[in-house]
Fold this protein.
Amino acid sequence: MKYDLVIKNGKAVTAVTTFPADIAINGETIAAVGLGLHGRREIDAAGKLVLPGAVDMHVHLQMPIGRFVSTDDFYSGTAAAACGGTTSIIDFVETAPEETMVAAIAARRALADPRVVVDYGLHMTITPGDIPKLDQVPAAFAAGCTSFKLYMAYGHRLNDGQLLQALTAVHAVGGLPVVHAENWDVIQALVAENVAHGRTTPHWHPRSRPALFEAEATGRVIDIAAFVGTPVHIFHVSCGAAAARIATARARGLPVTGETCPQYLFLTQDVYDRPGIAGALPVCSPPIREEFEQAALWTAVQRGDLQVITTDHCPFTAAEKATGLANYSQIPGGVPSIEMRLAAVYGGGVARGLLTLPQWVDLCCTTPARLMGLARKGHIAPSYDADVVIFDPEAPWTVTPQTLHETAGWTPYEGLALPGRVQTTIIRGQVVAADGELQVGAGYGRYLRT
Ligand code: MN
Ligand code: MN
């Protein structure tokens, strides 16, 4: 029999193993995995790695923050994702004061549905203003938002009592809370002290957000979640001490997971000492930290103490970043990573011998799909969605803004040399990107009920 499409002669990589295989696709679904398969259309993947489409469960596209909106919209951001081998993303939805959660989801979908190139889901954000709306959590869950974002930092942070209330409401529906864990009171005090003494350059950004208090907040929400009895996922872990809190909780048998991001694995805090705007561009929170923290994070992903690598993609233009040059605490936070994650973790992890090929796939594809409840994503096997990436492990390139499809106009990874890159990205049986060229139009992606 002939299949619609067969990816032939590649080395399949799953979260468990690697094996030579042809991948046969009918329609939107993987139909068979084996040898000697034939299709009406065939793609030769000899010498290439064939892996499940990558899942980035933490991105902010056209995200309103203060007076700015993050640079990549649902089209450019997902186009960049597709070119980089990411086939599903999870973005965010926030509810306006007079708006219901379900109405907010509909409004966000109205922006995203006609624009997305890859499949996408949404985390529902719960701010203090949403605490009176916790009775709407079941309706949000039914509308497809099964994960809920809780902040312990910024103006819309939850205090510990509100955290307890929100975690309880999310647990009642079987949702997954995802948490930004930092100690906002400490951060505010340190920022005020620095600014009062004229210490206003980005050099002071990491020094206002100590690793110790990221770990403290991580441990605090883990304890509140344990009291409630709910799983909890910790976003963007930037230091060894926070990873250790997660590892300790897991050793106690608690359903706690954590992620880190390329900015913490590839950069160190001296980026904030670059002169002028160059030091402001990489401002993100938690901050990029010292070299020993970077090493601790690689060890944490290697050991499985952290289970996921996401991006927290949230870039702003240089002009927008420059508005905070007089006071680092006013710089809109976030960096672009959505396109380079898969190739970067291959280069920094697999090629350096720190991670195995299955660990790479597990961190970037399989575990994020499982945590987000994407039962048809993140694996190469019959009946899964035909989301497949062909990766060339021997295609060296150097990251520059020109090599990427992101729109920020800058990348904190400029000059990073990587040994391999994504060649072809397939979503539900359709080639969406090949050799860095988008092959589908806006709106190809679908809303995922996570
Ligand atoms: Mn965050
Ligand atoms: Mn984020």
User: Anything to note?
Assistant: The first helix runs from residue 74 to 83. The chain has 13 helices and 21 strands. The CA atoms of residues 107 and 146 lie 17 Å apart. The chain has a mean pLDDT of 98.
